[in-house]
Design brief:
With 147 residues, the chain is mostly helical. It has two domains: 30 residues; 106 residues, Cytochrome Bc1 Complex, Chain D, domain 2 (Orthogonal Bundle), CATH 1.10.760. Helix content is 56%, strand content 0%. The longest helix is centred in the N-terminal third of the chain and has 28 residues. The chain is globular and about 35 Å long. About 12% of the residues have low confidence.
Length: 147
């Protein structure tokens, strides 16, 4: 290949690489969503056990709540939490639940409860647990509607 041909290809190759880098940065800035499998089935199972101990009295067995407790599933859930970050959901639950002793559960239990709620809303499980570290919770993981 001649130098002229090689040098002629460099701007085109650079343009392709630049376009790919911009697209990757846009995806990263957009963040992950609950559709990316951000919890495991085992974690949701632990969350379900904790739900039965600490939450079922107000939010009921079907997670639909009552007159004083909001529904944690379906359109009510996505209306309240759609386009919000999972970290915000976790922080809110930790701050106000259970109502008679807010913040009294271990941090990991609150995270497991979030996994259980996501599972009950039919968001897919993945291979890695949602972590209790602030990095994991503030990694711009957004609750989004299907579609």
């Amino acid at each position: 290949m001649t130098r002229r041909l090689v040098y002629g290809l460099l701007p085109a190759a650079f343009g392709v690489l630049l376009t790919a880098a911009v697209a990757a940065n846009a995806r990263e800035a957009q963040g992950r969503t609950v559709w990316d499998g951000i919890y495991t089935d085992a974690q949701a199972e632990r969350g379900g056990a904790s739900y039965k101990q600490s939450c079922i009295g107000c939010h009921r067995e079907d997670l639909r709540g009552d007159n004083t407790a909001p529904s944690l599933v379906g359109e009510s859930f996505t209306f309240l939490w759609g386009d919000m970050e999972v970290g915000e959901l976790s922080a809110r639950i930790q701050k106000v639940m259970p109502p008679d002793r807010p913040g009294s559960l271990p941090v990991q239990t609150y995270i497991d409860l979030v996994a259980f709620i996501l599972q009950k809303n039919a968001f897919p499980a993945g291979n890695q647990e949602l972590g209790a570290s602030s990095d994991a919770l503030h990694a711009r993981i957004t609750v989004t509607r299907p579609g």
